[in-house]
Amino acid sequence: MRMQTQVKPVSTHAVMQARGAASSYASTYATLRRWLGRGRETHISLPLFALLLLVALWMVTAHFVRLEQTGAQNAARDSVRELIDTYEAQLARSLGGIDQTLKLLKYVVELKGPAAALPALNEKGLLPSGLVFAVAIADRDGEVVASNPPAPPANLSGHSYFEFHRNSNSGSKGVLDAMFVSETMRGAGTLEAGVHFTLRLNDANGRFAGVVVVEADPAYFTSGYERSRQGEHGVLGMIGLDGAVRAMRSGDKVSWGQITRLAPVESPAASSASPWDGVARYTSVRPLHGFPLSAMVALDRDEQFAPFATRCRTYLWGAAIASVLLVLIVALVCIWSWQLERTQRRSRRAQATFAAASEASPDAFFILRSVSGADGAIVDFVIKGTNGRAQHLAGRSGADLIGATMLSLMPGYRDNGIFDDLVDVVRFGSMREAEWCCETELNRDRWLHRQVVAVEGGVVAIVRDITERKLAEQRIHHMAHHDDLTGLPNRSLIRERLDQAIVQAQRDGRCVAVAFIDLDSFKLVNDGLGHNAGDELLKVVGARMQNCVRGNDTVGRFGGDEFIILLTDLGDDALAIAPRLETICQAVTRPVLLGGQEVQVSCSMGVVMYPRDGEDPNTLMMNADAAMYRAKDMGNNNFQFYTREMNASVEEKLVLLEGLRNALDAQQLSLLYQPKVDLRSGLIFGVEALIRWHHPEHGIVSPLRFIGLAEESGLIVAIGEWVLRTACRQNMAWRAAGLAPISMSVNVSPRQFEEARLVERVARALADSALPADALELEVTESLIMRDLAQSVGKMGELKAMGISLSIDDFGTGYSSLSALKSFPISSLKIDRSFVSDLADNLDDQAIAMAVISLGHKLNLRVIAEGVETEEQCRFLRENDCDEMQGYLFSHPLPPDEVAALLLAQGGAG
């Protein structure tokens, strides 16, 4: 049978995995070789070796510190062991002497009696010294019958040792003869406090007959304290079996009574905190053979380790200083090695880097070697190297450029300063930069930038094409100095050209005219037809003005709807330019077609002459502005030359404005109230609040003079709020006085109406005065509402929802459409006084009034006419069914008390 072998195909995924693994291995191997190669460099290997030295140094230091620490611990334990042996022996001798004294005293007392015992022992010199010990004998009742040194009578029956001996009758012989050691206490001797050692006295029948007492000063048992061996905080102590300290000394302080509960310790392995003061000590406690006491010795760990700490600091400082020196030396060597390696690496890769960078760079590189003449002066440069960009710029191949001289290829460079610039770089070794416009056939009108750097034997010139940058700079300069919308010079360029015109006029003895122009009624067009229409109008007007001036004159847009015209090289006769100014005004007033609708605007122009009306740009612009406002005051669509009286008018406005700022605080403002009358009944149904200013110097100032200033400065917001609050409070005061309820009308200025917190301010005024909302009516102008129709209707809706009535003042003078009017949440229309003044004999005004009345009634609105001064006007309005009137025919604006009198009289008549 033949066997067939089937070859299994290898999958593409497996091949890709194998290739990826091989690529990863190769990359890892290359990275490893690169790092191993860098590891042989001195500035890398030396720090590693220094690190090993530092580790070894600190390991050796740590080893010696541990040896010293172990030695200090062993020395402390040996000292404690030696001291406990010595102290035990001292206590044993002292306690043995006390024990012998007690036994001798007991023997003599039982033999000769208490009274003869002490004299007998004293006679033989067997009594202990009274300076250290006090001896006392007490009978079975505890009364001290004899003592040395003599002491006042005392009873010992209440002491623990007396109770101990008296109650030991049933004990064994050892208990009866045992010495009792009391806690340190005040005793029967002369010492302040002491340790009491006692034995029992028996009578002939073996019954309890009293006690003999030897009292010792606690300091006696710690007198072996040596500061040289035990330091300032070492401890010697004698402890009872109950754990209470009988005597303990630490430094110069002797104490007793502490409870230690220390178990016997012969040789402490480590220090521990002492229970009485928390100080860490090596402590040894040893029971005293034959006595119910233990000896205690303790050495302060810090004092024992002080020599070790000193030696440890020495080791650490030595290691630190050695480490710092090693680090400094290694750092210096590494820095030197790194700089040397970097220099060598730069040198090795300089040409390769230059070649790669120059080819990838958008700049042209020329390597030029200087050629000197017989006198040593540089006469030309030989091209030694270029990149591709240089060959493209020169329009020649590399073979044609290498070895050629610069002047043979570009002879014009000898005369345009470039050759001299290269020579200076070679001579002085500096770097130079410059820009120039190329005039060669190949690169004509192209801007180039060169950077020339001196190298050995010549220079390297780096050339870049900056034509695009130059064009961009020109565009940016034009944008920075021209208006985006009209393309005319902006105020920055206007100022610059005005400065130049003044300098030129000074030099030539000529004059300059500056015309400040403001378009009349532009805001109405902008608000009514939209901003796009307004922008288009500005473009058309700017172009028309441009066509009316000479080429050396300037027309610029100052901002908004304001323009500036500079007329230069003029004579000193100002009237000579009047025809040109008239031409500009006529060009502006020609109709303009905007979005299929024909509109027409005019302009007000203020004109100044240099040097007659000012010698600097600021003064000229300020005076031209003042002249322009005079043209506005003269009824628009005219031009006015500046006169000194115009600044006086401006100064008067400034004085009024400054006074107006203080008028509220100084209580110079007041309100008058003009009645509003129902034409059918003749009754007063409401009043309109009208503001008056009582100026301390100018007397009564008309609202026509200061309301506009308040609106421009923003003071109208605070003044309007004061008017609203005062009017609401006054209406509420009339109601509180029992007068018939009437409505209060308050005018709202454009700045007030646009203020975000208007609704909140109105609500607060009503709340503060407690006036019902339906007793307040706010009057807004038609043009105010049309500024931003959507926002106006929304705000009026909020006020209407509060219950406040709204009225359109000066109706018929604005630009509202019927579609907009029907969306207003209003309750009444007010016919403007301009239509009422000639109502008796002007058919046009009569037609307008009748149309407004009819329109108002169709929309369910009440119609009121203001400015009614004659019976003919009143009769016409009544005959045409007008609802209300207001004017001098019925009443002038009145103070509050006169209004109250009218209401009171009206109520009485009713």
List keywords for this structure.
single chain; 910 residues; alpha+beta; eight-stranded mixed β-barrel; six-stranded antiparallel beta sheet; 47% helix; flat; disordered N terminus
Written overview of the protein:
This protein is α+β, with helices and mostly antiparallel strands and 910 residues long. Helix content is 47%, strand content 23%. An eight-stranded mixed beta barrel has the order 24-25-27-28-29-30-31-32, surrounded by four helices. A six-stranded antiparallel β-sheet has the order 8-7-6-11-10-9. A five-stranded antiparallel β-sheet has the order 2-1-5-4-3, sandwiched between helices. A hairpin with a 7-residue loop joins strand 14 and strand 15. Helix 2 crosses helix 3, helix 18 crosses helix 19 and helix 20 packs parallel to helix 22. The longest helix has 71 residues.
Question: How is the secondary structure organized here?
Answer:
Layout (H helix, E strand, L loop, with lengths): L11 H28 L2 H71 L1 H10 L9 E7 L4 E5 L11 H7 L6 H4 L3 E2 L13 E8 L5 E9 L10 H4 L4 E6 L4 E6 L2 E3 L16 E2 L6 E8 L5 E8 H60 L3 E9 L5 E9 L1 H7 L3 H4 L4 H4 L8 H11 L3 E7 L7 E10 L2 E8 L1 H15 L9 H18 L2 E10 L1 H8 L1 H17 L6 E6 L2 E9 L7 H12 L2 E3 L2 E3 L2 E9 L6 H17 L4 E4 L2 H20 L5 E10 L5 E12 L3 E3 L1 H11 L2 H21 L6 E5 L2 H5 L3 H12 L6 E6 H6 L1 H13 L3 E7 L6 H4 L6 E4 L1 H4 L6 H16 L3 E5 L4 H9 L4 E3 L9 H14 L1
Parallel strand pairs: 22-23, 25-27, 27-28, 28-29, 29-30, 30-31, 31-32
Antiparallel strand pairs: 1-2, 1-5, 3-4, 4-5, 6-7, 6-11, 7-8, 9-10, 10-11, 12-13, 12-16, 14-15, 15-16, 17-19, 17-22, 18-19, 20-21, 24-25, 24-32, 25-26
